[in-house]
Amino acid sequence: MKCLLCGSENTGVVWKCSASDLIEQWKTTFGIDIVEDLTGHSEIALHVCRSCGFSFFDPTLALHEATYSILQEIPWYYLEDKWEYDQALRDLRGISTLVELGCGRGVFVEKAQRLLGVRAIGLDSNVTAVVNGQTCGLNITAMSARDFAQSHRSEFDAVCLFQVLEHVPDPLEFMAVAVSMVRPGGRIVLSVPNAESYLRAGGNLLDMAPHHITKWDRNTLQKLAEMCGISCIRFREEPLSTHQVHGFADS
Ligand SMILES: [Zn+2]
Predict the structure, then answer these.
(1) Could you tell me if residue 58 is inside a domain?
(2) In terms of residue numbers, what domain contains 227?
(3) Ligand 1 center to 132 CA (angstroms)
(4) pLDDT in tens, 41-93
(5) Of 55, 109, 179, 237, which sits most exposed with the smallest number of CB within 10 A?
(6) From the CA of 131, how far away is ligand 1's center (Å)?
(7) Residue 69 lies in a domain
(8) What does DSSP say about strands 119-123 and 140-141: parallel, antiparallel, or unpaired?
């Protein structure tokens, strides 16, 4: 299978799991049935690119929106106060406009408006989340990033994407769309699960397909930036937080 980042054919499988095992684990752990999410696939496999070091799952499946809706009902799934929100708000002082891709019900959009005084727009594919945000008066919409970008080229001071890239089947194309919306000299602020953290141990159901499709670390994010023609200004790693202690201990 071709590398989803650099396109090299020099990739190999380093781990795999049968679809039936995965379905059973989701049922036991979360009480969620993912049979339909895995329709037509008998196993999932983790590939590593020997050329660039990128890791990604095959099949490159995204969870169905209906499954995301059930996951979102789990209290810890969408945290109101994410560490990266505070980092972004600090880094983005002084800007006037931003768009957030994958904004959920708009928690960050609301914070950015209130704390930075910016014109903030959010996009998300989850219609229920979008309607919730709109009800609170936020400027968020269920339009795809690609469609939105068509009429918003080079428009924003910043594009934010928090915990989104790892869910996307074509991260390179997705980032190119994000970059197209930033004005020259503007910024992209993104967060991803750190593949170099305790997640390295593997076995975390939410850090594998069909929930996460790709794994990121400093090197692969740097490579992604190069391929998109942008430069990395800064990396930050989140300290272990209370809600991650169990995952850390299990690893
Ligand atoms: Zn590669």
Answers:
(1) no
(2) 77-250
(3) 39
(4) 999 999 999 999 999 999 888 788 888 888 877 776 766 678 899 999 999 99
(5) 237
(6) 38
(7) no
(8) parallel
CA of 61 to the centre of ligand 1 (A): 19
State residue 101's pLDDT score.
98
Give residue 53 CA to ligand 1 midpoint distance, Å: 6
Rounded to the nearest whole angstrom, what is the distance from the C-alpha of residue 82 to the centroid of ligand 1?
30
Determine contact, residues 251/198, Cβ cutoff 8 Å: yes
Ligand 1 center from residue 233 Cα (angstroms): 22
Domain count, the chain: 1
Local structure of 141: helix, strand or coil: strand
pTM over 0.70: yes
Domain assignment of residue 98, yes or no: yes
Span from the CA of 44 to the centroid of ligand 1 (angstroms)? 19
Q: Provide the CATH number for the domain around residue 101.
A: 3.40.50.150
Q: Are 26 and 32 in contact (CB under 8 A)?
A: yes
Amino acid at 135: T
Residue 15: half-sphere exposure toward Cβ, Cα within 13 Å? 11
Residue 64 lies in a domain: no
In the predicted structure, residue 107 carries a pLDDT above the cut 80: yes
- 220 CA from centroid of ligand 1 (Å): 9
Q: Tell me the Ramachandran region of residue 60: left when phi exceeds 0, alpha when psi lies from -120 to 50, beta otherwise.
A: beta
pLDDT, tens digit, 9 for 90 and up, residues 201-219: 667 888 888 889 999 999 9
Residue pLDDT, tens place only, 3-15 = 999 999 999 999 9
